[in-house]
Design a protein that fits this description.
276 residues; alpha/beta; Aminopeptidase; 9-stranded mixed sheet; two-stranded antiparallel sheet; 7 helices; 20% strand; N-FG_amidohydro; N-formylglutamate amidohydrolase
């Protein structure tokens, strides 16, 4: 993996070069092994939290981890195109618009002991902006090359905080064209429901049950690219103990192994249905 400045990453994508890189400020990673009509994203995978913010933050390291989406990049790491955030959503949230990307409170608790300076805020927002410059170039390139692109927008959620039974997988579709894409959304839901987990973990899959797909990553791409479908795909955190902060690597591996075949199969069906 190389460390590359933003302009070099964008140039490589525009020239359809294959590469693997981390941004020069270490805010995100991108891997392109081949140009294919689908992309995997893990915008909440990151846990980094820059040191100058530590003394101001009221949330503990565990509280931040609890609300992040650990291992979501690892679940899709084998695919040809993967882009993932490295920084914690508590520094800036890539799945929120720039206007709301900096938290002032988080999940009902005040986040900062005192207000952040404008310099600190702008430093975070610049990372947010740079990420979306790359996203824009990437989707523009894929859509132009193939005529259609599918983005698998990977997230996780804390299932134990719900007071009812919730699905292992949730697809959020409230901000996509369901008249156009309803059939391929359903085929993705069906495929996810067939995944088999170790440790007697059951697999269920629903649409708009726990989350509705209101994230900025999905909205930004959907609003800017008419021939790209973003599938906001949430897995319940059955792959870890969300209270004891323990990852179950055998479950993560099982998910990755299943998605290695299921994502390309589904992406090709979508592409064949919608390519121009």
């Amino acid at each position: 993996m190389q460390k590359l400045p933003l302009k070099d990453i964008i140039t490589k994508i525009k020239n359809e070069q294959t590469f693997e890189a981390v941004a020069s400020d270490y805010s995100f990673t991108i891997k392109i092994d081949a140009y294919v009509p689908y992309v995997c994203g893990a915008v909440h995978d990151g846990h980094q939290f820059r040191k100058e913010l530590w003394k101001s933050c009221l949330h503990t390291e565990y509280e931040r981890w609890y609300e992040e989406d650990p291992e979501t990049k690892n679940m899709v790491k084998s695919h040809p195109i993967v882009i993932a955030g490295c920084d914690s959503r508590f520094e800036y949230d890539l799945n929120r618009s720039p206007e709301s990307a900096i938290y002032f409170d988080a999940w009902g608790k005040q986040l900062w002991k005192y207000p952040l300076s404008e310099v600190m805020i702008n430093k975070s927002l610049e990372k947010h902006s740079n990420f979306y410059k790359v996203v824009h170039t990437l989707i523009e390139t894929i859509e132009f090359k193939f005529g259609f692109c599918t983005v698998y927008d990977m997230h996780s959620y804390n299932w134990k905080r719900w007071d009812r039974e919730v699905p292992t997988w949730n697809l959020g579709t409230s901000n996509i064209d369901n008249n156009r894409f309803g059939a391929v959304v359903e085929s993705w839901r069906q495929s996810l429901s067939e995944i088999r987990f170790p440790n007697n973990i059951k697999s269920t899959s629903k649409i708009n049950d726990t989350f509705q797909g209101n994230g900025y990553f999905l909205k930004y791409i959907t609003q800017n690219f008419k021939n790209t479908l973003v599938l906001a795909t949430e897995i319940a955190k059955v792959y870890c103990d969300e209270y004891d902060q323990i990852i179950y690597p055998e479950v993560v591996h099982a998910v990755e192994t299943e998605l290695v075949k299921r994502i390309p199969e589904h992406a090709m069906r979508v592409y064949n249905a919608f390519k121009s």
